[in-house]
């Protein structure tokens, strides 16, 4: 499966959805703390399953879409790190 180059953090995408609304207003609507939303919008925290469900309800989007964005972002970030060489299982006995 091809990997997207440097996928955006879900918070970046969320910024587009809430454009024209204050962080305080959106946080209040979602029933979360303003700081929690701000950290998400600035890529300082991950998007949780709970947040994905809140966004699904508020924005009429899919929770799976939001979690998929987080997954793609996390995988891309992990692939940028130096990783140990791990042999496939069939080579373990060799």
Summarize the structure.
With about 90 residues, the chain is mostly helical. Helix content is about 55%, strand content about 0%.
Provide a descriptive summary of the structure in words.
- By secondary structure, this protein is mainly α.
- The chain has helices spanning about 10-15, 25-30, 35-40, 50-60, 65-80.
- It has 5 helices and no strands.
- The radius of gyration is 17 Å and the shape is elongated.
- The mean pLDDT is about 95.
Structural class: mainly alpha
How are helices and strands ordered from N to C?
HHHHH
Whole-number average pLDDT?
A: 94
Given the C-alpha coordinates, what overall shape results? Answer: elongated
Q: In angstroms, what is the radius of gyration?
A: 17 Å
Number of beta strands? 0
Low-confidence stretches: none
Query: What is the count of helical runs?
Result: 5
- What is the makeup of the main sheet? none
Organism: Undibacterium danionis
Protein name: HigA family addiction module antitoxin
Pfam families: HTH_3
InterPro entries: Cro/C1-type_HTH (IPR001387), Lambda_DNA-bd_dom_sf (IPR010982), Toxin_antidote_HigA (IPR013430)
